[in-house]
Amino acid sequence: MAWNEPGNDKDPWDRGGNQQKPPELDEVVKKLQKRFGSVLGGAGGQDVPPIPGAIKFILLGAILVAILFASRFIVDAGSKGVVQRFGEFHHLADPGWNWRIPVIDKVSIVRVDLSQEFDTKNEMLTGDANIISISINVQYRHADAKAFIFNVRDPDDTLQEVTDAAIRAIVGKYDIEFIQRQGRDQVARETRELLQANLTRYGTGIEIDAVNLNNTEFPVQVQDAAQDVIKAARDKERYILQAEAYTNDLIPRARGEAARVIEEARAYRDKLVADANGEAARFLSLLKEYQAAPAVTRERLYLEAVESVLSSTSKVLMDTKGGNNLVYLPVDKLLENSSPGTLQRPNPGSVMQPSMSPSGLQQQNVPSSSDANTSRLRSRDRN
Fold first, then answer.
1. Pair 176, 103 in one domain
2. Is residue 39 part of a domain?
3. Rg of the chain over CA atoms, in angstroms?
4. Together in a domain, 123 and 101
5. pLDDT for res 348
6. Where a domain ends, among 194, 217, 240?
7. Percentage of the chain with pLDDT > 70?
8. Torsion angle of alpha carbons 192, 195, 199, 205, nearest 10°?
9. Residue span of the structural domain in which 103 resides
10. Contact at 8 Å (CB) between 93 and 145?
11. Do residue 194 and residue 157 come from a single domain?
12. Do 107 and 123 fall within a single domain?
């Protein structure tokens, strides 16, 4: 017969012993009193007299005080207390006095205002396939206490790994010259932004305050070649600065020269226009006079032309009417041989009257045909 069949009163766990009933509650209490009595100095195995009421209250008060001391905890300023009840998040405790249930609640204190930092150094490839060794300093805070405790198993190690990944990603975008010179601040700024974005996506509860590039250098194996590259880069910058200085000196002078030539051209243009306007006005006024008195105006123009020609020459040829003689006046020679007061240079518009003897005049015989030619020329000029 099976042990669980109806009518079978045997206990399957009974190993042949007698069946015993569970002890009564009163008996258990009495046994505990006897044991405590033996510990406190009473006779073991004998009935313990009941505890007086005053002592019960004292013991109860002591137990309550112990529970109170075990229940309270203090959260410092700038920190947060993460309270877990049975291992599950219950609430955040603010700075000051706080309470918990002993044994059941667990409290973890997290500094949320303390700025921490760490340094890391790694070798990595740049965008132009050069190897560079970069050391950076990262300053961070545990801004979200709950996320810092629950979301990531080891937030500090996670921060280290995410930082290495972020700096490698940013350095791989730029060439080595940009990273070592003008791009240091930009690389640090972009690294901080990428690092914060990844930490926020992972829910680490960490906030990055700053990322600083401490040093960017070449590995030891390539330092000699790197120094040559740096020297060439410095020479390049020096030549660029010299070229810019030459350009800054040459261009203003060229612009000034161009402005001067333009101003001279404008002045020359204005002069030509003014002269042309004056000539046109003089011609119009002369036209009016000629229309009023043609013969007189023609004679005056002839005399003015002859006067302007003779005033600028030192030799004069004169012919005589009705004769074949042509008188030659060497004015320059006469001026040299005469005294300063004897002969004066004629002024334009005045008649020259030299005070000299006829012996100073040179006469030349001219064929008779010259008289006719001279008369024709004079009549033509007058007409």
1. no
2. yes
3. 63
4. no
5. 41
6. 217
7. 67
8. -20
9. 34-111
10. no
11. yes
12. no
Tokens linked to 205: 């509860």
SS3 88: strand
Can you tell me the mean pLDDT for 285-311?
86
* Structural domains of the chain, count: 3
Distance CA 197, CA 189 (A): 12
How far is the C-alpha of 177 from the C-alpha of 237, rounded, in Å? 12
Which strands form 131-142's sheet, in the order they lie side by side? 116-125, 131-142, 206-217
Strand order in the sheet with 105-111: 88-93, 79-85, 105-111
Distance from C-alpha of 304 to C-alpha of 126, rounded to nearest angstrom: 92
Same domain, 189 and 206: yes
Q: Does 134 share its domain with 158?
A: yes
Q: What is the pLDDT of residues 331-362, one digit of tens each?
A: 666 666 665 544 444 444 343 444 343 333 34
Phi-psi region of 277 (alpha: psi -120 to 50; beta: other; left: phi over 0): alpha
In total, the chain counts a number of residues equal to 383
Q: How many CB atoms lie within 10 A of CB 81?
A: 21
Q: At which of 111, 134, 155 does a domain end? A: 111
Supply the CATH number for residue 125's domain.
3.30.479.30
CB 327 within 8 A of CB 361: yes
Q: Write the pLDDT tens digit of every residue in 254-292.
A: 999 999 999 999 999 999 999 999 999 988 988 888 888
Residue in the structure block whose two tokens are 């320059």? 332
- How many CB atoms are located within 10 Å of the residue 218 CB? 20
Q: Are residues 81 and 137 in the same domain?
A: no
* Whether the Cβ atoms of residue 124 and residue 97 lie closer than 8 Å to each other: no
Does 195 reside within a domain?
Answer: yes
Are 156 and 198 within one domain? yes
Higher-pLDDT residue of 3 and 61 is: 61
Token couple for 308 = 């302007």
The pLDDT of residue 346 is 46
Report the C-alpha gap between 162 and 195 in whole angstroms.
7
- DSSP class of residue 87? T
Rounded to whole angstroms, the maximal C-alpha distance in the chain is 195
Average pLDDT, the chain: 75
Structural domain contains residue 3: no
294 inside domain: no
* Cβ-proximal residues to 137 (8 Å cutoff; 6+ apart), any chain: 117, 118, 119, 210, 211, 212, 214
